[in-house]
Amino acid sequence: MLNKKELELYKKLLLDKKSKLLSGVRSLEKMSLHETSQGASGDLSSYATHPADIASDNYEQAKNLDFMDNLEVFLEDVEDALSKIENKTYGKCEKCKKVITEGRLKVEPHARLCMECKEKEEYDNKK
To answer: Which of 30, 40, 47, 83 is 20 to 30 A from 124 via CA?
Structure first.
């Protein structure tokens, strides 16, 4: 199991990730929900916007919202990992309950599964 110093290191990594994710979500919210190409360009005239511009705006907004959803899922994983540190269950695979290797945690400190279970999950999802 991880010692106190190692847990503090992972907690710091997770808090840094959380901060960056929150910043990214806020930026995407602003871009997706508040701006169109017409508004962003400063062109607020009464002229009709070209349909291609509207389509581009809609596409960009949908893409940003999808990306924001992915960031929010990632943020939930980071918050779950922080809770596990507090509950002293951090670093254990959710499926097999074995210890997740430090190498995996250094690369992905929010990992829920050990490599063996993660590979099995990905293999099963491809079927």
So the answer is: 83
pLDDT in tens, 6-64: 999 999 999 999 999 999 888 888 876 665 544 555 555 545 577 777 787 778 778 87
Residue range of the domain that includes 92: 4-36+54-126
| Bridge partner list, 92 | 99
**CB distance 66 to 60 below 8 Å:** no
Instruction: Find, among 28, 30, 6, 26, the residue nearest to 18 by Cα.
Output: 26
Instruction: List, in order, residues 6 or more apart from 31 with CB less than 8 Å away.
Output: 60, 64
Helix residue ranges per DSSP H, the chain:
4-34, 37-41, 51-87, 102-107, 115-126
In a domain, 48, yes or no: no
Q: How many domains does one find in the chain?
A: 1
**Within 10 Å of residue 73's Cβ, how many Cβ atoms?**
9
Task: Report the C-alpha gap between 127 and 118 in whole angstroms.
Answer: 15
